[in-house]
Amino acid sequence: MADLDFDNTDLKDYKASGALEGKVAIVTGGNSGIGQAVAIAYAKEGAKVVIGYLGDEEATEKTLNLIEKYGGEAKALSGDLGKSENCEKLVRFALDSFGQIDILVNNAGYQYPETSPLDIKDENMLKTFEIKAFAMLYLTRAALPHLKRGARIINTASINAYRGHSDLIDYAGANGAMVSMTRSLARRLVREEIAVNGIAPGPIWTPLITKTFGGLNEKVAEDFGQDVPAGRPGQPYELAKAYVFLADPQNSYMTGQFLHINGGDYMSS
């Protein structure tokens, strides 16, 4: 099993080009895993970062310290983004902190693995959709009046939206909704020069994997990512450049698309 790198310390060697100088980004779920990697990379590229998170104050403080260590500037606000009022608070917090919003990364998510559809609990299914699909639309709706031409919205979905997952039926469905809404928003906002794209990661080592799959079946966690053509799971920092690419103002003719970063596990047509 690959070593876990939950601190994204490999980003210390990240080579920035100043692509996001003068920008302000909101990154949800930005205190660990993929979101942490994105927040650090954006800060190194010159953006000021606002992290939306829920729980794990220690991880949040560590992320803020890493960003400061690398010469960036970031602030964080806790709140359940499955509730629209908290999404509005996060947008207001970003505006009060830095005066503008240029990039919105909807990355927060959670999953409740179940080996049988009969065991899917109503409250878990609702929470899964709230954190993934609902929060994405709530935040986009709250931020949109403040986004100018050239703004970027980037949504983290999952490979499971495309191929399904026998133990994550509701999670796959929530990510499928996210994919569809991303494409619909892209069509609506393209004339305003606001690009809406996403990334559908494959097996990536994050704290979420051990929190969820580890309790369900230790072998699932042990074998995680071993069956993809690359022969290993990805690390969060390996996705960072893709999020920078989608946020880069020079990437001006791409919208409604998803990048598939998955070690060759799924080849999108």
From TrEMBL:
Keywords: Oxidoreductase. InterPro entries: NAD(P)-bd_dom_sf, SDR_fam. It comes from the Bacteria. Pfam families: adh_short_C2. PANTHER family: NADPH-DEPENDENT ALDEHYDE REDUCTASE 1, CHLOROPLASTIC, NADPH-DEPENDENT ALDEHYDE REDUCTASE-LIKE PROTEIN, CHLOROPLASTIC-RELATED. Belongs to the short-chain dehydrogenases/reductases (SDR) family. This is SDR family oxidoreductase.
